[in-house]
Amino acid sequence: MFDNFPLWPDRASTAAGNVDALFIFLLIVSGLMTALIFTAVVYFSARYRRRRGVLAEQIEGSTPLELTWSIIPLGVFMVIFMWGAIVYFKSRTPPRDSTEVYVVAKQWMWKLEHAEGQREINELHVPVGRDVKLIMTSQDVIHSFFVPAFRMKQDVLPGRYTIAWFRATKPGTYHLFCAEYCGTQHSGMIGSIVVMEPAQYESWMSGGSTGPLSASGEKIFSELGCVTCHRTDTQGRGPNLQGVFGKPVLLEDGRTVVADENYVRESILDPGAKVVNGFKPVMPTFQGLVSEEQLNALVAYVKSLSAAGQTGGQTANPASVVPASSKAPSKGSSQGSQVQ
Ligand code: CUA
């Protein structure tokens, strides 16, 4: 309806309409409220202006009136809250089977790497109509990945991953901004999202890849010697990583965490933080030894060990993930059983 309304940027993602509808609703509610207040101010100041011989009458209160002005605003605010929560959770939850793109921000550029291996700088090519999940981190300070046409903005922090996603609905080239002041050339930290027709995208994809990101990850995994401890059986000094990603993991201290991108990342950089139940904290840190790009590749590799179609020994039975680690011969798991 507002497609040519000049006050709004393009609407080019599935989220854009929802965000705009809520925003317009807020504008209308605030506008009505403002009009109501100003009308009342003008009316009352005329109606009850000071007049000779007329004295103000003290009113002690009115329960129906007070209930009315409490309940109606409560209803309005609950609508805003629920609506906002729904839009928020939708925009926070990447659909399963999203295409994944790893984003590394640095002063002052965006480095993007597709799970398929294509690398880009300040430009991201995506197909129209496909869910794209962004797994983002920063090499230095806080940045923010902002695509107005997608109504999407997510801070990008050093030391952890933040996640965002979108599904583009309209081919075209859209602005990418950094929306967090990050130093002198912050304003130059811009780029573009190129949304292409699927066929066009396929042909773009077929050029210049160095192989999937997970394959680079596998290479790094063996180069750094990870493979000597994280074996694909239960004899390793570290947990077998087959089928672990996305599943709950029982820790030495009794907690259970989900093995998501941030968990894998932390386990590489700070292995002592969340030791898997049944294992000793013997893994050295790789802080400073792997770049953000290599970390991303390692995460993609660990993820690929759990991807559908992977037929590693343990993957067939996801239920075995938590017990598998406690079955490890190195250590009893008495602590683990208290937790259940
Ligand atoms: Cu990066 Cu502002």
* Helix-and-strand structural type: alpha+beta
CATH superfamily of the largest domain: Cupredoxins -  blue copper proteins
Helix content: 25-40%
Broad CATH class of the largest domain: Mainly Beta
Radius of gyration, Cα only, in angstroms? 27 Å
Global shape: elongated
Strand order of the largest sheet: 3-2-1-5-8
Distance between the termini: 54 Å
Poorly predicted runs of 5 or more residues:
309-340
Bound molecules: dinuclear copper ion
SSE series: HHEEEEEEEEEEHHHEEHHHH
Number of domains: 2
Beta content comes to 15-25%
- Count of beta strands: 12
- The total count of helices amounts to 9
The appropriate CATH architecture of the largest domain is: Sandwich
Estimate the mean pLDDT confidence. Answer: 83
SSE blueprint and pairings:
Elements: H1 14-47, H2 63-92, E1 99-106, E2 109-114, E3 119-121, E4 123-127, E5 131-138, E6 143-147, E7 152-156, E8 162-167, E9 172-178, E10 191-196, H3 198-205, H4 213-223, H5 226-229, E11 248-250, E12 256-258, H6 261-269, H7 292-304, H8 321-326, H9 334-339
Parallel strand pairs: 1-5, 4-10
Antiparallel strand pairs: 1-2, 2-3, 5-8, 6-7, 6-9, 9-10, 11-12
The protein binds dinuclear copper ion (CUA).
